[in-house]
Amino acid sequence: MSWMDGVPLWDHHCHALIGPSLAGDMEVFAYALTEAPRSYPLSDIQETVTYWQALAVAAKELGCEIDDQGVAEALRQRDFGAYSRSLFQQAGYKRLLIDTGFTPQGGWALPELETVLGVPILKILRLETTAQELLYQFADVRDWILAVKDRVKNARSQGYVGMKSIVAYRSGLEVYPVKTIDAQAAFAEMQKQGQTRLTDPRLLNYLLWEVTPVFISEALPLQFHTGHGDPDTNLYKGNPLLLREFLETFIPQGLQVTLLHTYPYHREAGYLASVYPRVYFDVSLALPLAASGAKRIVAEALELAPASRLLFASDSHTRPESFYLAATLWKQGLEAYCDHITQDHYILPQVAERWVNLIAWENCRRVYQL
Amino acid sequence: MSWMDGVPLWDHHCHALIGPSLAGDMEVFAYALTEAPRSYPLSDIQETVTYWQALAVAAKELGCEIDDQGVAEALRQRDFGAYSRSLFQQAGYKRLLIDTGFTPQGGWALPELETVLGVPILKILRLETTAQELLYQFADVRDWILAVKDRVKNARSQGYVGMKSIVAYRSGLEVYPVKTIDAQAAFAEMQKQGQTRLTDPRLLNYLLWEVTPVFISEALPLQFHTGHGDPDTNLYKGNPLLLREFLETFIPQGLQVTLLHTYPYHREAGYLASVYPRVYFDVSLALPLAASGAKRIVAEALELAPASRLLFASDSHTRPESFYLAATLWKQGLEAYCDHITQDHYILPQVAERWVNLIAWENCRRVYQL
Amino acid sequence: MSWMDGVPLWDHHCHALIGPSLAGDMEVFAYALTEAPRSYPLSDIQETVTYWQALAVAAKELGCEIDDQGVAEALRQRDFGAYSRSLFQQAGYKRLLIDTGFTPQGGWALPELETVLGVPILKILRLETTAQELLYQFADVRDWILAVKDRVKNARSQGYVGMKSIVAYRSGLEVYPVKTIDAQAAFAEMQKQGQTRLTDPRLLNYLLWEVTPVFISEALPLQFHTGHGDPDTNLYKGNPLLLREFLETFIPQGLQVTLLHTYPYHREAGYLASVYPRVYFDVSLALPLAASGAKRIVAEALELAPASRLLFASDSHTRPESFYLAATLWKQGLEAYCDHITQDHYILPQVAERWVNLIAWENCRRVYQL
């Protein structure tokens, strides 16, 4: 039985694509399939399942051999927009929630991308980068916070349907409340030093703690980068269990949280989803990047978590093959999972069917109120 | 081949059942299948494998459809004692070690429960709650400790066959020795503030460190809550590896330790069991709550650990379906494990047979001297 | 299809064997198949898959029953050198990189062992034990460091092809830079107390941070003990993610790092290998000791990591059966992995073939420049 046939995919965490000018650049292709920076050897990326499976995706669509030069040549002869659209349509993408905090160079603008792909696009606003832009407009940390809150209040009117925090990339997920007097000291220090990147833990934590009530009043879900990411993140501090104090404080007040990526802490994320109201998560980035583990990772994510708490997401960017691959891997994982629970755990077929729809798109619709 | 056919189950960690008055209450049914509190949405519990598999267990026994209203109705028409007894007997339960620290409301008293189920019951005594009850009877922390020690010395005569520590719920598993002078200060402080719940880390650690020698002299095994539990526990501090200093101190003196639950740290628990004498563990609570992962979780637990160190347990409470489900999942896991090791690892069938008996009941008999 | 047929194995982390005098000692046999010390019950080791699978290896080679007494008797009647050689040859071992920091009692000297097994042997030098030997020859910590650096510079000429750090066994993997003045204080303190074992965190960290530039200039790869080991290591502090500051500092300078063992942190190690240049790892020790989990552990290690970053290793010592078993388990894991990725992930057979060769021996040749 094919559980996912015809089920639409709503991707609640992804990024924009490159445009046609870079379509045949196979270095861009490779580095879109890793979290490693450009200092990481290309030759190593070329020894991964993800890279070869993405090549196979491209080769099938292009009708060429599974070979980087063959794919590059075929790509240069193909309309990249039509090619991208074909992959998105085949994969079943019906809606994209794009994190605008990272955008590949030479990419389509979002309205253009929407037309190219034929998929409606909604946006997610990054808290820390938004706040960072406002840093030097104020002398008092409280004024800065007020300005950030104003931005958040205007987010919906600008097409944003959720917020994202990258505090895991800056000071880690053990988020705690900070006194205004300490935040003010850090604020003054930062301005004196002329720093433009917001890295002081006191400011990051103060910001998150102060602004979160507005996420609640605006009914904006808050995404957290957790787990796996580029080496700028300290994975040791990216364990979502560290969010405990934050969750204990704001979940009872009505905050909705989505834990992104989570791998290798996806069992921990599943635990959080199983005991806290309004906590959601995904295994994006691992699918597509941990391609060969797709079935196991999806199965582990669903050990404790209700099906109403896991969301489909790719965290893909730059290349359409990455989106196609992520979709394939999620489907592969969910197919195997449904076979398993209906065969070994007496789950009724209609229940399994409902669950794949929840994970594929309905949870997303509900959480982001789409 | 069916490795578990006719193998009795001794459950070394579980709780009591509700009585007939709540038999058809499907909210009680649902919340017995999660670690989430009542503030967690019922609708999310109803999107888990555990919930539906428990419904299937009930429906099969009751001869009705797998559907909550159908099950509720059938339950109200059935003798709940006979129903419970039937599930326990079919599952193969032959002995229960009940942690009396948590008892569902409206439940049978233990002597009555023993008769209802036709299964002998033994008891486990919680250290911290026992100590808490004695807090205000003494002015000196040393007198308090002496009184707790007396309780422990009398435990066997009152039907207790082991102790349980919930320090993971209070201050975490990184247990350390505390000076009497510091413990006395904490003791005085606590009494001054009129606290009735024992939460001060100094007191919790002092208590555990001081009383453990009596567990050894009384030959009482010490259970630790570790890993997965309700959100009152900080799962980040529930990693059994944090017990290192405690184990290094008391294991050489003869202490027997059983690490409860352990998920998602069951590989870590298996490691501890593989290098320390007298360290045992289980994957209760995950089985039944991480139902769809049963085979993988049992297999992971047995990667490093000898079969002589893993114990069957359910951590079930409230509902008989939970007990039945836990038993089914353990059996499913152990069946798959035995197939795997006899087919791929040249393990002799008679050895695999001995191992399932060890895990199912013989380890329990030996550890608790039954 | 058999992916590993005829593929040679180069073991980049293992130890020496016992000699014929202990060949039939079944206690030595058992304790060679665990990380537990002699205080751990023999009877528990005898309830592990590893123990029984090693017995089956011996019994097959000896033509006797799978039974410890039968094996012991047959071993005493067999030429132990020829027996060992046969197992190494059948397993496909073609080169051994032996860590000389641990050597079983009554073992062959390495030149002799090379002849007995018919396998070329190269050596790995332990940093901390080398440095420890030099501790009392100097009054100034800088002179001590200079002497250690000299030893490292002479390492290649003495047959060493890499270095190993056991800092995880002493103060943990959260390695940090230490000021010379603080190191000098610790150095004086240690000498005053007459300690011969290097355990002071300041000295251990200073040593590693000061000497690493010489590993780079000498192009000597640095192995780290991480993860699973005997209970002298604190597994909680053995998470390779803790090496972050060290990796961020020295990897850009050209250091090559191999993370040994890694279990249960092999997914974390795979992550590090996927984002940092020149970071390699293995799942030795888990294979052979977590025998029944071989397929899953290899598959998990290869979720994120390129095939160019995982190395075959056994961490075996003392007994030839342990080496044979490790080889069998790695092959079993890699066979299953290749079946999976070629069937479910469109990986070309020739790519999968290249990958098993990389993991089995080519990565080792390249990293250690053999």
UniProtKB/TrEMBL annotation, chains A, B, C:
<dbReference type="GO" id="GO:0016787">
    <property type="term" value="F:hydrolase activity"/>
</dbReference>
<dbReference type="Pfam" id="PF04909">
    <property type="entry name" value="Amidohydro_2"/>
</dbReference>
<protein>
    <recommendedName>
        <fullName>Amidohydrolase-related domain-containing protein</fullName>
    </recommendedName>
</protein>
<feature type="domain" description="Amidohydrolase-related">
    <location>
        <begin position="220"/>
        <end position="370"/>
    </location>
</feature>
<dbReference type="InterPro" id="IPR006680">
    <property type="entry name" value="Amidohydro-rel"/>
</dbReference>
<dbReference type="InterPro" id="IPR032466">
    <property type="entry name" value="Metal_Hydrolase"/>
</dbReference>
